[in-house]
C-alpha cells in the first residue's frame, strides 16, 4: 500500500485498442470517486499477437500493421521523460485515435505529443526499435500477472491477502460515469478478491461508444 493510503491500481494499455480506451476512461472516473492511485504501463497488441499473426482474421491483421508505432512512442516517452508522462500521453493519443477518429497516423501522433507537452521528435520512434526490449519487458510484466489468454487492458489490484490480483477488462461500453462507475469498480474489487474466481463473460453486441467521453 502506498504511503498516501490509496489503493494502487496498475493499468496496462495499448493506445491502439478502443476497448482499453473505454476502460481507461472509466478508471479515470473511478479515480475521482474512490481512493485509488492509477499507475500506467505499456503493453502491446503487436507483441501479444506476433506468434499467431498468420492465424488471425485478415481484418485484424490490417489493424495490427499499425500497432508497433504508437507503443514505441509511448515507451520512448516513458524512458526519456519518466513514467509520470504516460497518463497524459495516453489521453492525448486515445483522444485523437478514438474520439476524433484521426487514425493511427504520424500526424495524429505528432499532435498528441504536442497535446501532452512532449517533444515532437519522439514521433521518430514509431519506426525505430530503440526501446523494443523495454517495451517487451513492460508487456511481459502485465502478462505474467494475468496469463496468456487475454488482451488489453490488464488491471492489477491488491487481493484479499494483499498480493496483486490481475485481470483482463472489464470490457464495457459506453464508459460508466458517476455512481455507475463506482459500483462497477466495487464489484470488480469484490470478484478480484474472491479466491478461485476467474471469469465472467458474454458475447459483445455493441461497438465502442465514445459519445460520453
Description:
It comes from Streptomyces katsurahamanus. This is DsbA family protein. Pfam families: Rv2466c-like. Strands 2-1-3-4 form a four-stranded mixed sheet, with helices on both faces. It is globular and about 45 Å long. Helix 1 links the parallel strand 1 and strand 2. The protein contains eight helices and four strands; from the N terminus they run βαβααααααββα. It is α+β, with helices and mostly antiparallel strands.
How many helices? The count is 8
Average pLDDT, rounded to a whole number, is 91
Helix/strand/pairing category: alpha+beta
Strand order of the largest sheet: 2-1-3-4
Question: Radius of gyration, rounded?
Answer: 17 Å
Helix content: 40-55%
Low-confidence stretches: none
Helix and strand element order: EHEHHHHHHEEH
Number of strands: 4
Main beta sheet: strand number and arrangement?
Answer: 4 strands, mixed
Distance between the termini: 30 Å
Tell me the β content: 5-15%
Pfam families: Rv2466c-like
Protein name: DsbA family protein
InterPro entries: Rv2466c-like, Thioredoxin-like_sf
Organism: Streptomyces katsurahamanus
Amino acid at each position: 500500500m502506498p504511503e498516501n493510503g490509496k489503493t494502487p491500481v496498475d493499468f496496462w494499455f495499448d493506445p491502439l485498442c478502443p476497448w482499453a480506451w473505454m476502460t481507461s476512461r472509466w478508471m479515470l472516473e473511478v479515480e475521482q470517486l474512490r481512493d485509488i492511485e492509477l499507475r500506467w504501463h505499456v503493453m502491446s497488441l503487436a507483441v501479444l499477437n506476433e506468434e499467431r499473426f498468420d492465424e488471425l482474421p485478415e481484418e485484424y491483421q490490417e489493424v495490427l500493421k499499425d500497432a508497433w508505432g504508437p507503443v514505441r512512442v509511448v515507451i520512448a516517452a516513458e524512458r526519456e521523460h519518466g513514467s509520470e508522462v504516460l497518463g497524459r500521453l495516453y489521453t492525448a493519443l486515445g483522444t485523437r485515435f478514438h474520439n476524433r477518429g484521426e487514425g493511427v497516423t504520424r500526424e495524429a501522433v505528432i499532435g498528441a505529443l504536442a497535446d501532452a507537452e512532449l517533444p515532437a521528435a519522439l514521433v521518430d520512434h514509431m519506426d525505430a526499435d530503440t526501446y523494443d526490449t523495454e517495451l517487451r519487458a513492460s508487456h511481459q510484466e502485465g502478462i505474467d500477472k494475468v496469463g496468456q489468454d487475454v488482451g488489453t487492458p490488464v488491471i492489477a489490484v491488491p487481493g484479499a491477502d494483499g498480493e496483486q490480483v490481475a485481470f483482463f477488462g472489464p470490457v464495457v461500453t459506453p464508459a460508466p460515469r458517476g455512481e455507475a462507475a463506482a459500483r462497477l469498480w466495487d464489484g470488480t474489487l469484490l470478484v478480484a478478491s474472491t479466491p478461485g474466481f476467474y471469469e465472467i463473460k458474454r458475447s459483445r453486441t455493441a461497438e465502442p461508444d465514445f459519445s460520453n467521453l
